[in-house]
Design brief:
The complex is a heterodimer of chains A (about 350) and B (about 800). With about 350 residues, chain A is an alpha+beta fold. Chain A is about 40% helix and about 20% strand. In chain A, helix 1 runs parallel beside helix 4, helix 2 packs antiparallel against helix 4 and helix 5 packs across helix 11. The chains are: A alpha+beta (about 350), B alpha+beta (about 800). At the A-B interface, helix 5, strand 1, helix 7, strand 4 and helix 9 of A face helix 2, helix 8, helix 13, helix 14 and strand 30 of B.
Chain lengths: ~350, ~800
């Protein structure tokens, strides 16, 4: 009753119907008509019980083969319908990708902070730790201990801000330089000492190139053998690292500061191209820092013995080297908090200076 | 200080070029600020002769001149009244830039006559204001000679900056000595031959001070010179003074200026006819007045040194002479003053009276106390040479202060301090050239300091002297030792916090500002400051009068300026110090920020939102987290300092005694007082108050991640409106500390449906089973405990 010719005809009929099904509903109707409980294949399966022996085996195998074939054909046809339906839906889904992304404000780090970190990175590699001191200082720490007695002409040159006098007549000052940290460090630390002290400083001065507040970084090295050659090396290595140059032209000039002896001012070679300064090359010089061997009186004022302890100190203007490195023209703008300036000259929060990745 | 090359060469025998001299000066610590080289500036201008000057055919005031120049004959139209046939002048060819007019000369046609150059006036060359006619030179000068040479202006002027420790370099002789030591030539011997006096001075000098051992004027050398003829000083002297920016006045005055600049030895010359009785140095009597040579009258006090006669003060010692006894063209008899004045007192007097003079500048830095007699002889000789007359014997009162001192310089100290090995012989040579008296002792030098070097006080100074002459550029660099092969961390916890806070805030969209440490008193008071000990005695303006008590004030001000520029959405932060008093411990490091306008900018997705207290809260918490505060233990309580909105602000603390931060909307009254439009949300974190991290170990505790699925349950409670959400959350958490991993509040709602003064708070509770799946009964039991705990703590009931 189930000869192979009939099965072949059934197969051809079903496959052709599956291929011709117009939609998923038609396909489902076909599935039911073939594989459903009363479907053509299922009915024939039921009929197998009437056959015997070899005939049942052969007919069963043929029917199962047909069942699998028809099942696969239906599944494949179903997948086609799904893919087509998705394509149809996607064809209607569209956004204008040129619309702006949702706003995420990007903040900035001030150049002074960025350069603070750069300087700290460089000196940390040389074993300098970062020391700090108060902005409101006593006369002693700002002047007396630094070998600037009351009547010293340098005191007038410092354009000091004073706070209101106290009842006993003494008055506090806003530190005019970061050098008081030298004394405070000596009072609390036994040599060898290697520190830098970056921070705010104040002078009663306000014009094109001066602001009443600015930033300095002090350096101090004290031990038993550090000499001027080490100072020169340290400053030159610093300048190369900070300005990220292989070579930097420098000039060391004798000068005078009350708190160092010998004292020197340091110039860095530069050239001017279209009003922009280019550091490290050229025939012009820019003064960038003051330095020297710590004066014996200062070492003594810090409670150490200048017969045994010696070393160097230097002071660099942070704002100034920031201007030079990043081509920022006007010091006053540093403190005006103009959003346009902060966004233009500021740094990304992720741009954290480090020696491995490069400072800038 | 300025001087000319030829003036320097009066004292220094040298063939060095100006550039070599300039480099050596700077190297020595006498920094060259400017070199004014007229020869270079006037290079295109040369001597020429007018072959013929004839009337312009078409202009009464113009002449047509045929000028013979080095480049041939050139026709020039000239308007100068003194242009004449045969004269010798200065010619500029077409193409020359004329400094006095700023014009680039071109060939032109003036009223129909061609003109191809210019005969110049002094003003056109910018060598004087004279524009009455063209320069009329001596006919013997050859055609083609550079103008600078013909005019005697080919002497470069060098301007150097002198540090306060080098009074000796405030005289050209001292500069020459420094250069000679450097090897740039030979110092010429000083010519201070005594002038033989022929009579006894009719004016005597007395030093009237109470303590003869410590006087403001320890020595005074004087001399009477009679029969002088005062008048204009000779050309060479006038030219030198002009070159360095001084105005020639008369021979006698010019001589005092000349000696001041040549030898750093200020002199004063009194008109002897106007001196009443004898001269004495004394302290002024309070209230005494002096009409000084600058034309101003000064009232003196008892701390000021005066040179007086029987009538009263005639000069301010070391600072300025008086007008009544000053020299005039008709002066015939003079009294020369060469004195030493105490630097400290001179400086104080100068400051009090606000007089700047060449004399004060030198005296307050310290002049050579042993150069009085030499100075008097040099001055006398110049007066006799230029003004004639007859000199008295010297009058000498008092004694030079004894400044003799000597220091030992160890032979290896140049190396061990200065970093450069200089042979002891060379060290001795340099110091000797600088005027030290050097004796070789043991393995070093004993060095007696010359009297003109008040700055040298020890071995380190001797190292500096040798170092600057050897040249600091020549000190070899020496690498510093590395204490550790690989650098160790060096920042303190507070410094790390500062950096972290800053980076976190920039990451959150803030722009970092650096604002002044000061602010106006009015603003200080708004933020709890304005204490008298935090006011500047000498503020630069009333806008910068007080030390800031908070960072927020200046940020608001800065925001205001940006708003005025059209930037309405502002987010600024600052990390910096604020001041609660004038002691070091009163300074705290803080991180503060303010937002104004839209927290999320207006955009097409429609999610724009104005800033509020919760932006500030998030900012404060993020800052604290970045700075390493124990975030899980932080308490948040209602209310903040006065400058915040009383209802929309909070404090973040670790117990009531340790407040770490404040946040909220800024009080409208504060914004009003500062004239800045709000609303604004702000926060301030006190970085110093964050406790140190307890666990220093880098290792993390083991991860306790359960493979069992967490269970989430939502609850909505109705509570009284004043119940703090935080209290409810804590109560829920407390219901089963082991099982409840998280309680998140996801809805807060008030509405009429809830009843008066009620609100609904909805939370999601996450239960994390640890070792076995929870049964429904267990979950229901925890849920019941949550409801129970919340009710106990807040009186809240489950919303139906």
């Amino acid at each position: 009753m189930t000869d192979s010719g009939e099965l072949t005809a059934l197969r051809d009929e079903l496959i052709s119907a599956i291929d011709g099904a117009g939609d998923e509903a038609a396909l489902e109707a076909l599935r039911v008509s073939a594989l459903g409980k009363k479907g053509a294949i299922s009915e024939r399966m039921k009929g197998l019980g009437k056959l015997d022996g070899e005939a049942r085996k052969a007919a069963g195998q043929a029917l199962n083969k047909l069942k699998d074939e028809v099942g696969s054909a239906i599944a494949a046809r179903q997948a086609d319908f799904k893919a087509a339906a998705l394509d149809e839906r996607l064809a209607t889904e569209f956004v204008d990708v040129t619309l702006p992304a949702r706003p995420e404000p990007a903040g900035t780090i001030h150049p002074v902070s960025q350069v603070w970190e750069e300087v700290v990175q460089i000196f940390a590699d040389l074993g300098f730790s970062v020391a700090e001191g108060p902005h409101i200082e006593t006369d002693w720490y700002n002047f007396g201990a630094l070998n600037i007695p009351d009547d010293h002409p340098a005191r007038q040159e410092h354009d000091t801000f004073y706070l209101n006098p106290k009842e006993d007549g003494t008055r506090m000052v806003l530190r005019t330089h970061t050098s008081p940290v030298q004394i405070r460090t000596m009072e609390t630390t036994q040599p060898p000492i290697r520190i830098i002290a970056p921070g705010r400083t104040f002078r009663s001065d306000s014009d094109q190139t001066h602001t009443p507040m600015f930033h300095q970084v002090e350096g101090l090295v004290l031990d038993e053998s550090t000499h001027l050659g080490h100072l020169k090396w340290c400053l030159e290595e610093f300048c190369k690292a900070f300005f990220e140059l292989d070579e930097v032209k420098m000039r060391f000039r004798a000068s005078h500061f009350p708190f160092t002896e010998p004292s020197m001012e340091v110039d860095i070679g530069c050239s001017w191209v279209d009003g922009q300064v280019k550091i490290g090359v050229g025939d012009d010089w820019l003064e960038i820092l003051g330095s020297g061997m710590v004066h014996p009186n200062v070492i003594r004022a810090g409670g150490l013995d200048p017969e045994k302890i010696q070393g160097f100190a230097f002071g660099v203007g942070i704002d100034r080297i920031a201007m030079l490195k990043y081509g920022i023209p006007d010091l006053r703008a540093f403190f005006e908090s103009d959003l346009r300036w902060l966004r233009h000259y500021g740094f990304s929060s992720l741009q954290r200076p480090n020696l491995a990745g490069g400072l800038s | 200080m300025k001087f000319t090359l030829s003036w320097l060469k009066d004292h220094l025998d040298t063939d060095a070029s100006v550039d070599e001299i300039a480099a050596a000066l700077t190297d020595n610590g006498l920094e060259v600020e400017e070199i004014d080289n007229m020869a270079a500036q006037l290079a295109p201008f040369k001597v020429a002769k007018v072959k013929e000057a004839r009337q312009h055919p078409d202009a009464d005031r113009l002449r047509v001149c045929d000028v013979i120049t080095a480049d041939g004959e050139i026709q020039v139209v000239c308007g100068a009244p003194n242009a004449r046939t045969g004269m010798t002048g200065i010619f500029a060819p077409a193409g020359t830039h004329i400094p006095g007019t700023g014009v680039d000369l071109e060939v032109g046609v003036i009223r129909g006559v061609e003109s191809a150059g210019m005969l110049c006036s002094e003003r056109e060359l910018m060598i004087s204001e004279d524009h009455d006619g063209i320069i009329d030179l001596d006919d013997s000068l050859p055609i083609g000679m550079p103008a600078a040479e013909a005019l005697g202006l080919d002497d470069p002027v060098i301007d150097i900056a002198i540090t306060p420790n080098r009074p000796d370099a405030l005289g050209i002789y001292g500069v020459a000595r420094d250069l000679a030591a450097k090897g740039l030539g030979t110092l010429k011997p000083l010519n201070a031959e005594p002038v033989k006096g022929t009579f006894t001075s009719p004016i005597s000098v007395d030093l009237k001070f109470d303590d003869p051992g410590n006087t403001p004027c320890p020595q005074f050398v004087g001399r009477y010179i009679r029969g002088v003829k005062n008048g204009p000083s000779p050309d060479w002297l006038q030219r030198r003074l002009r070159a360095i920016g001084l105005r020639p006045i008369s021979a006698l005055v010019d001589i005092t200026n000349f000696v001041t600049y040549a030898y750093a030895r200020p002199l004063h010359v009194f008109d002897a006819a106007k001196v009443h009785g004898n001269i004495h140095a004394r302290l002024a009597r309070p209230g005494e007045k002096l009409q000084a040579l600058d034309g101003k009258e000064y009232e003196l006090d008892g701390e000021m040194t005066v040179i007086a006669d029987d009538n009263g003060p005639e000069a301010l010692g070391g600072i300025m002479g008086g007008e009544p006894s000053g020299c005039l063209p008709e002066t015939t008899d003079v009294f020369l003053e060469v004195a030493y004045f105490d630097p400290v007192r001179t400086a104080a007097t100068g400051r009090k009276l606000n007089i700047l003079s060449d004399a004060r500048y030198r005296f307050e830095r310290g002049i050579d106390p042993e150069f009085l007699i030499d100075g008097a002889e040099i001055g006398t000789r110049l007066i006799l040479d230029l003004c004639g007359g007859e000199a008295s014997h010297l009058v000498i009162a008092g004694q030079a202060p004894d400044t003799a001192r000597s220091y030992h310089l160890r032979g290896d100290r140049m190396q061990t301090l200065g970093g450069i090995d200089v042979p002891v012989k060379e060290q001795a040579r340099i110091l000797t050239d600088l005027g030290f008296t050097v004796t070789e002792v043991r393995a070093g030098l004993d060095c007696a300091v010359p009297p003109w070097r008040p700055d040298v006080h020890g071995e380190a100074d001797l190292v500096e002297e040798i170092g600057r002459i050897v040249g600091l550029d020549n000190v070899p660099n020496a690498a510093m030792d590395r204490e550790h092969a690989i650098a160790r961390p060096t920042l303190t916890p507070l410094q790390n916090r500062m950096i972290a806070a800053r980076r976190a805030l920039a990451q959150r969209g803030f722009n970092e500002a650096v604002t002044w440490s000061f602010l106006p008193a009015k603003h200080a008071e708004l933020f709890g400051g304005g204490q008298p000990e935090l006011k500047l005695a000498n503020p630069i303006s009333s806008e910068l009068s007080d030390m800031r008590p908070s960072l927020i004030a200046n940020l608001i001000e800065a925001a205001g300026r940006n708003i005025d520029r059209g930037f309405g959405d502002v987010g600024l932060f600052e990390v910096g110090q604020v001041y609660a008093g004038d002691k070091p411990e009163d300074e705290t490091l803080r991180a503060a920020g303010m937002r104004r306008g839209q927290a999320i900018a207006r955009n097409w997705t429609g999610s724009a939102r104005a800033v509020d207290a919760f932006d500030a809260k998030a900012d404060a918490l993020a800052t604290l987290a970045a700075a390493g505060a124990p975030t899980a233990s932080l308490q948040i309580v209602q209310g903040a300092p006065d400058w915040f909105h009383p209802g929309r602000s909070g404090t973040i603390q670790l117990g009531p005694k340790n407040q770490l931060a404040w946040f909220g909307e800024v009080h409208p009254r504060v914004l009003d007082a500062m004239d800045v439009k709000g609303p604004m949300a702000a926060f301030e974190v006190v970085l110093d108050n964050i406790p140190a991290a307890r666990n220093k170990s880098a290792a993390r505790p083991a991860l306790k991640a359960s493979d069992l699925m967490a269970v989430k349950r939502d609850f909505a409670f109705i509570v009284d409106a004043e119940v703090a959400a935080d209290k409810l959350i804590r109560a829920a958490k407390g219901a089963d500390k082991a099982l409840i991993a998280e309680v998140a509040l996801f809805d807060a709602f008030t509405g009429a449906s809830l009843g008066e003064d009620k609100k609904s708070l909805a939370i999601e509770v996450t239960l994390q089973p640890r070792d076995k799946t929870l049964t429904d009964e267990e979950i229901d039991a925890v849920a019941a405990r949550v409801v129970d705990q919340v009710q106990k703590a807040t009186g809240g009931t489950l919303r139906g």
